[in-house]
Amino acid sequence: MTDASPANPVESKRPAIVFEDVSKYYGEVLGVSHVNLTIPPGITSLVGPNGSGKTTLMNLLTGLILPTRGRLSVLGLSPRRPEEFFRRVGYCTQFDSFPKGLTGYEFVANYLALTGLSILEAGNLARKSIERAGLADAADRKIAAYSKGMRQRIKLAQAIAHDPEVLVLDEPLNGLDPLARAETLAQFQTFAQQGRFVMISTQVLHEVDLVADNVILLSQGTVVAEGAIHDVRTEIREQPLQILIHCDRPRALASQLFDSGEVVEARLHPDGGSILVKTRDADRFYLALNRLALEDIAIESVAPADDDVLSVYDYLIAAEDSSS
Amino acid sequence: MTAAQSQWTLWRAQTLAVMRLEWKKSFLPRRGLWIYLLALAPVVIFGLRSAYLAAHAQGADAGDDAQLFASVLQFFFLRLVVFFGCAGIFMNLFRGEMLQKSLHYYFLSPIRREVLLMAKYLAGVLSSVVIFCASVILQAVVLDAHLNSTAFRQSFFNAHGLATLAADLGVTLAACMAYGGVFLTIGVVFRNGLIPAACFLGWEMISSLLPPTLRRLSVIYYLKSLCPIQPAEIASRHNSFLALLSLKVPPASASLSLVALATLTCSLLALASWRVRDMEIDYGTE
Ligand SMILES: Nc1ncnc2c1ncn2[C@@H]1O[C@H](COP(=O)(O)OP(=O)(O)OP(=O)(O)O)[C@@H](O)[C@H]1O
Ligand SMILES: [Mg+2]
């Protein structure tokens, strides 16, 4: 079903990471739904809160799980053909578990040996990669005795050891100290400047804000925005927010809100005691609402009706606060 | 080098790499300890018997020993020790790594899932053969330990003794390969392999009591047929209770047995290779 033929003319012409209407359900539980993406080279960051589907998307991309619907390919290759696929793709997973009893060096060297390299070649490459990850001193200690940050580093060393063209990284900065974060991000940047693909997932956009070329915002299993960081911000800014207001005189409130000019749409709720409004600027809307409430309408409650977009909006605000 | 040749070279290198990793894992004492104990059980039984015979200066001739050995091999060693040992080793090749959350390490490497499966199978065969063949050799040594050294040498090294031992080792190898194939497949095809494994155990147990045609559908029938000494011969001579369980059906010829076991193993491995392509990493719900 997801087998993409490398001879497919469209895919081989413009190498990219392509999701075509991909959905994944874990039994009844939604992982991601109807994902359509074409990801160009450079750094792409996948942003979303816990459970939004970042890991699901990355596991789908690397064939660890199979899509319930849809198809995907990386550089025209399907992850269902690991022999070619993983020569060009490296994945640093979120799993914090390792084969038992291995040292950091063995972990990376054995992985390289699985690609068919001789023990000697694998060993040399492994040392180099571990050194790049800043873990040379601890290479010959058992992973079981590593700290969280060291485990993260050895996973990174493994993901880049075979010099892949596509690097998929699930929350790669977790557990790293600020200095290591900066170093690691710089490495990713160098990597991307060579025309390769780097996908980084993160829960907080500002973490990768400065290096990411593109951003994909995920919320509850769907892609809510996608594109160059600046465009995505604008897009979100322009997306109206829905707000539900309970009050004693919904009709009067609706007309007054319209007059204030902060509302693009207002609907009376069938229950007769509330209205659903849409606004483009939440802050100015709340100010206007406060003025009205002070006058003669008793407002019981005000709640965003659209958690998704609101949370995403929060991210972007947070991102801007930290970068300004 | 042609493309096909280099493909095989690659697969061989990858298989060796997997086997090196698996080898380390399967001999870790903690996980495999019960398998070693199981393999030692018949050795201990023979040891106790030898000690008893020696202490009471009681003679049991080498002929008795050979028959005893043959029935323990068929009724205890192959049926229970190798059976459960292989269940422990082979069902864990994939499920065990799912539980330990380490399977993604293999699934993210440029190795075909089919090659990975075969490599893991070979690694399993290697470790089970080492463990259980060592057990057979120890059993044979300890069995005759009560004899004086001349009689021991006579019994152990005379043409029949060594030839029988070689055949016993061959049967053990066949048992590891066949049971290994069964349990590897169960571990790959079923999310929870316990029930199918119990069904298989039940079938192997009751099939000896079934009509001849049905008996031929069990693994143990062919393994028994390959055994160098049939306890049926013992049973008829000693009229023991073993006669009940013994092979009243004539054994299959050695070549037929080998073909049957090989066919079963190959088709199961083909099934498992096909299923492992669709295996998903799911550490959460195990
Ligand atoms: N193996 C699984 N079985 C059942 N449901 C799952 C499984 N893995 C993920 N899910 C569900 O799929 C959704 C997306 O999860 P996912 O792990 O992709 O989120 P995430 O964005 O990576 O979260 P986090 O930031 O915590 O890593 C969640 O609702 C989660 O409960
Ligand atoms: Mg995740």
If you had to describe this structure to a student in words, what would you say it looks like?
The complex is a heterodimer of chains A (324) and B (286). Chain A has 324 residues and is α/β, with parallel strands linked by helices. Chain A has 2 domains: 17-233, Rossmann fold (3-Layer(aba) Sandwich); 240-305, Alpha-Beta Plaits (2-Layer Sandwich), CATH 3.30.70.330. Chain A has helices at residues 9-13, 54-61, 82-88, 104-114, 119-132, 148-161, 178-193, 229-238, 250-260, 282-294, 307-323; strands at residues 17-26, 29-39, 42-47, 69-74, 89-92, 166-170, 197-202, 214-219, 222-228, 241-247, 265-268, 274-279, 299-304. In chain A, strands 5-6-7-3-8-9 form a 6-stranded mixed β-sheet, sandwiched between helices. Chain B has 286 residues and is mostly helical. Chain B has one domain (14-285). Chain B has helices at residues 3-26, 29-55, 62-99, 103-107, 113-143, 149-157, 159-189, 194-206, 212-215, 219-226, 231-238, 242-245, 254-276. In chain B, helix 3 (62-99) runs parallel beside helix 7 (159-189) and helix 5 (113-143) packs antiparallel against helix 13. The longest helix of chain B is centred in the N-terminal third of the chain and has 38 residues, at 62-99. The mean pLDDT of chain B is 84. The A-B interface holds A 26, 59, 62-66, 80-87, 91, 93, 95, 97-101, 110-111, 113-118, 162 and B 9-10, 13-14, 17-18, 20-21, 24-25, 28, 97, 100-102, 104-113, 277-278, 280-283. Magnesium ion is lined by residues 54-55, 94, 170 of chain A. Magnesium ion binds at residues 54-55, 94, 170 of chain A.
Helix content of chain B: over 70%
User: Roughly how many Å is the radius of gyration of chain B?
Assistant: 21 Å
- Strand element count of chain A: 13
Our measurement of the CA-to-CA distance between the termini of chain B, rounded to an integer number of angstroms, reads: 45 Å
What is the CATH level 1 assignment of the largest domain in chain A? Alpha Beta
Overall pLDDT of chain B: 84
What would the principal axes of the Cα set say about the shape of chain A? Answer: elongated
Helix content of chain A: 25-40%
β-strand amount of chain A: 25-35%
Main beta sheet of chain B: none
Mean pLDDT of chain A: 85
**SS-derived structural category of chain B:** mainly alpha
Number of domains of chain B: 1
The rough form of chain B would be described as: globular
Structural class category of chain A:
alpha/beta
The CATH homologous superfamily of the largest domain in chain A is called P-loop containing nucleotide triphosphate hydrolases
Tally of domains of chain A: 2
* Succession of helices and strands of chain B: HHHHHHHHHHHHH
Terminal CA distance of chain A reads 47 Å
Number of strands of chain B: 0
